[in-house]
């Protein structure tokens, strides 16, 4: 057998390279960012601190954090060139297309776009991190016919994100649930979008091209698009505010039984690596529970319970992070199509950390294929 005869469909089980950024361990259901359990990071740290940890490998000192916080707050405003580009896009195009376009425009206008020394790569990553929330906030507001809300330098990343989107200061519980979601979505080893970013970087292309490509990979419902798809499932089942938790659970359980009988794939469940449950779900579920209490929307958790229970009973498949994240963002007031752009805002950290790691020890990513087309043949004269 030649090497070309061994095909690893979907690269399942293939170890493609080393990484020191995160460790996903399906045996122990654990996830470490630079060695730290993600649950601890979500409980204790700001998203800004986690971003620095992912990029640099170490927790920031007080002065490093203060310096980054000042930088981030100074780079939040929506770039007028990005605003003009978004304004050319129809309000009914997918918000992931808006996010992808915005990153592309930011890259084309970044004077450091073609520079790739480690210091510049880090500076570009920080600028992208700071600039992206305004894109999401602007996009949601323009779709609703609302005016732009300018960023506020007295607010932290999560507070300001919610401020720019909704034009009012969010309650501390809401800010905290949002921060937790950002920390949990930040990084997950060689997932499809991160691997895409690494493939692009491996050709020595630039950081913004790699992130733009990663956004394309994240959009699909088998990856990041699942958080949006989860909410569409809830919407299809029907959200009825007057229902009790038990009534909602009974209806969603029946919906799932029917969907599985029809051999449907239900987004928000299953994972390529975790087979016993996603390490991040308990923490995100706690954030969702806090939002259920905050908004008093017990019918939503009923829908959640029913789907989860029916899937477990029928197939033993567990929810992934997108499952609790979807209804959490819904309760906060984000439009459903905006959920995956929120994932971008967070994953910019992981993607750019991987881009820097790939560039530092690069080898062109170019696997082989096993040809199964027609045997050699000749053009008829
Ligand atoms: C943050 C994230 O990106 S997490 C992932 C988000 N994606 C989703 O939620 C999409 C829904 N889930 C899926 O499609 C899959 O579970 C994936 C793509 C995530 C992982 O899939 P893989 O490891 O390739 O497993 P695969 O898709 O082959 O599934 C194995 C079996 O479980 C079933 N299965 C897996 N997930 C689901 C699901 N969500 N609904 C119904 N059945 C499922 C498959 O139909 C298949 O059954 P079969 O063996 O009878 O054909
Ligand atoms: O690891 C994966 O394949 C998908 C995932 O959970 C993520 O990117 O967060």
From TrEMBL:
Keywords: Acyltransferase, Transferase, Tricarboxylic acid cycle. It comes from Nesterenkonia alkaliphila. Belongs to the citrate synthase family. Pfam families: Citrate_synt (PF00285). The active site is at residues 271, 322. It catalyses: oxaloacetate + acetyl-CoA + H2O = citrate + CoA + H(+). Pathway: Carbohydrate metabolism; tricarboxylic acid cycle. GO terms for biological process: carbohydrate metabolic process; tricarboxylic acid cycle. InterPro entries: 2-MeCitrate/Citrate_synth_II, Citrate_synth-like_lrg_a-sub, Citrate_synth-like_sm_a-sub, Citrate_synthase, Citrate_synthase_AS, Citrate_synthase_bac-typ, Citrate_synthase_sf. This is Citrate synthase. GO terms for molecular function: citrate synthase activity. It comes from the Bacteria. One of its GO terms (cellular component) is cytosol.
